Amino acid sequence: MNKNGYNMRSVFSLFSSDLAIDLGTANTLVFSHGKGIVVNEPSIVAINKASGDVVAVGREAKEMLGRTPGNVVAIKPMKDGVIADFKVTEKMLTYFIQKAHNRRVLVHPRIVIGVPSEITPVEKRAVQDSAYRARASEVYLVEQAMAAAIGAGLPIEEPSGNMVVDIGGGTTDIAVISMSGIVYSRSVRVAGNEMDEAVMQYLKRKYNLLVGERTAEQIKMEIGSAYPLEKPLTMEVKGRNLIEGVPRTVTIDDSEIREALSECVATILNAVRVALERTPPELSADISDRGIVLTGGGALLKNLDKRIREETGLPVSIADDPLASVVLGTGKMLSDFKLLRMVCID
After folding, report:
1. Stretch (H or E) spanning 89
2. Residue 134 to residue 114: CA distance in whole angstroms
3. Which fold is adopted by the domain 192-260?
4. Does residue 65 have a pLDDT over 90?
5. Distance separating alpha carbons of residues 294 and 284, to the nearest angstrom
């Protein structure tokens, strides 16, 4: 009987359509039960204004950012980790869910979605409604920092302190976790997008050079840093000169971009400091042994770990796959329902 029971279960898991979604400001990742990460694309939708049809979603739509003709707009429906454009988010989710199921339309998956920790009830409802409209049968919300900690492989079930700093596109989520619960969590709306914006403003001020958000993001990724680098880096940046109105190329180095990013980095450091101050002393002792784990795309900013180490004196490590930590953690909850019940927000 036991063997048959097992077989029945494996048949069910074959048809299991459950998904874990990291609905991010910059990227959306979808994890499918038993398959792993099946979608990893920018959270961008290109829409034809005249007809309201979706022209492209994800990577294709990102290529169009800042390059579309008048009747097509590339929209980022998520802002600061929450839904800014409800209709577009719904279209995007529907597209990604179908893509995860190889375009099968009749699937009604159970979905687990990561959200920032300081999300309001209204914002929570927006996420749930979008998922239900995109044909989910059940929707569970979990805090991103918790999901990131699980995805980064932290021993969250033990009665000892783990501190995770998840720097995404729209929000930086900081949490201290013990016994599968959140002891302290804080979400600041300064993260990757804010950094891109800072780079754009800096080039405008210093060189009268206008660059788009894609270029700003490339600059940040290539030569951005939070602490002086061993080898200086330079980069040619192309944009439009504000005064003459013609295309221009300027060569900039890493110290300039470090200066441009300094305020964003300081805000994140400050939030980390506050989190450490608010942590109960027993857990502080654990954190001083174990240190801080960085996840999210922002963890890839050069020398950010070094800078936090320098400022807090604590060991700092970066998760193995920082961009996927949240979705991997959320994905683990699909197969571990007990864990999901413990950590999901009502």
Report:
1. helix 86-100
2. 16
3. Actin; Chain A, domain 4 (3.90.640)
4. no
5. 17
* Proportion of the chain above pLDDT 70, given as a percent: 95
| pLDDT, tens digit, 9 for 90 and up, residues 217-234 | 999 999 999 999 999 999
pLDDT band at 245 (very low <50, low <70, confident <90, very high): very high
Residue with tokens 């979604």: 21
CATH of domain 160-190+261-322: 3.30.420.40
CATH topology of domain 17-146+326-345: Nucleotidyltransferase; domain 5 (3.30.420)
- 199-226: average pLDDT: 94
Helix 192-207 / helix 254-278 crossing angle, nearest 10 deg: 140
pLDDT band at 89; cut points 50, 70, 90:
very high
- Does the pLDDT at position 105 exceed 50? yes
Angle at 221 between CA 232 and CA 195, to 5 degrees: 105
∠ Cα 109 115 121 (to 5°): 100
Among residues 79, 91, 98, which one has the least CA distance to residue 48? 91
Query: What CA–CA distance (Å, rounded) separates 251 from 291?
Result: 38
Contacts of 194 (CB under 8 A, 6+ apart): 264
**What distance in Å separates the CA atoms of residue 208 and residue 213, rounded to the nearest whole number?**
16
